[in-house]
Amino acid sequence: MFTALLDSLKSAGLPSACGICHRFGQEAVCSSCLEQFAQPRHRCSTCAIALIDTKQTRCGACLTLGSVLDSCHAAVDYAYPWDALIQRFKYSDRGDLRAQPALAKRLVHVMRHSAAQDKSLADALQQAQRSDWIMPVALHPERQKERGFNQAHAFVKNLFPDHPHLRSDLLLRIKNTAVQATLPRDTRIHNLRGAFIAAPLTACLLKGTRVTLVDDVATTTATLSAAAQALRQAGVHQIHALVFARASHA
Ligand SMILES: [Zn+2]
Ligand SMILES: [Zn+2]
User: How many A from CA of 20 to the centre of ligand 1?
Assistant: First the structure.
């Protein structure tokens, strides 16, 4: 609750505490926390997993199995301390939705900091700004009702406040899948088959377009891939994904 109060103060334009170390200042996340925890990583171009070999452009899984995504970029690894920040954002400090815009701004601040140091991420953000459509990964309506909002939508709205074609109604999630992080890769992909569709009445708007899909976290790219599959079926020509954090396992 203390952090919720700080976030409300921040949204009122007052100095607030860093989202990580809680030291007071003007930034949503202070420069020493960014320096310590948000160093750029070399990542696979189609799933954003961190790669140790800087000469490699794609990971083994993407090279072997291919990817429905044309590109995927992430600001940070889904690890300490960003995992806790995302949990607070997702559940808005246990349901206090007043804190939610300030929490979204923290993620955007970190994303912009990462892009200032990582040309490939900066290019991806520029490309997203020029894409025909930009859309959050849809939540199932029941999940959205439980949570009170779609965190991917809150994130993308703050990341691209001026995008003229930010739409959350073109892609629908029609299957409510359980939390899948602990399931094996094949099971996750199987469970997500048919989880998304392009909204039938507007599917014609997608044909031949370039879309940027945005999510807060990619634990794996199973969800992004299932969403992308539905967009491909509607004739989308290029699909680029942007996530705040990417887990460091396949
Ligand atoms: Zn800090
Ligand atoms: Zn990959």
Answer: 5
Decide: 197 and 215 in contact? Cβ < 8 Å. Answer: no
Q: What is the dihedral of CA 221, 249, 86, 105, to 10 degrees?
A: -70
Residue ranges in the chain modelled with pLDDT below 50 = 1, 12-13
Interatomic CA distance for residues 249 and 61, integer angstroms:
11
How far apart (Å, rounded) are the C-alpha atoms in residues 122 and 116? 7
**Cα 27 to ligand 1 centroid, rounded to whole Å:** 9
What count of residues does the chain have?
A: 250
How far, in Å, is the centroid of ligand 2 from the Cα of 79? 18
Q: Looking at residue 223, what is its pLDDT? A: 92
3-state secondary structure of 173: strand
The residue range of the domain holding 100 is 2-246
Model-level pTM?
0.90
What pLDDT is stored for residue 107 in this prediction?
A: 93
How far does the centroid of ligand 2 lie from the alpha carbon of residue 62, in Å?
4
In this structure, are residues 104 and 217 in contact, taking their beta carbons and an 8 Å threshold? Answer: no
Of 32, 31, 28, the residue nearest 17 (C-alpha): 28
Ligand closest to 61 (CA) is 2
Rounded to an integer, what distance in angstroms lies between the CA atom of residue 216 and that of residue 228? 16
pLDDT value at residue 228? 97
Contact predicate 171/230, CB 8 Å:
yes
Mind listing the pLDDT tens digit for each residue in 165-211?
Answer: 999 999 999 988 866 667 777 787 788 889 999 999 999 999 999 99
Cα–Cα distance list, 28 to 9, 61, 106, 159, 211 (Å): 12, 36, 5, 14, 29
Q: How many domains does the chain have?
A: 1
Q: How far is the CA of 240 from the centre of ligand 2 (A)?
A: 13
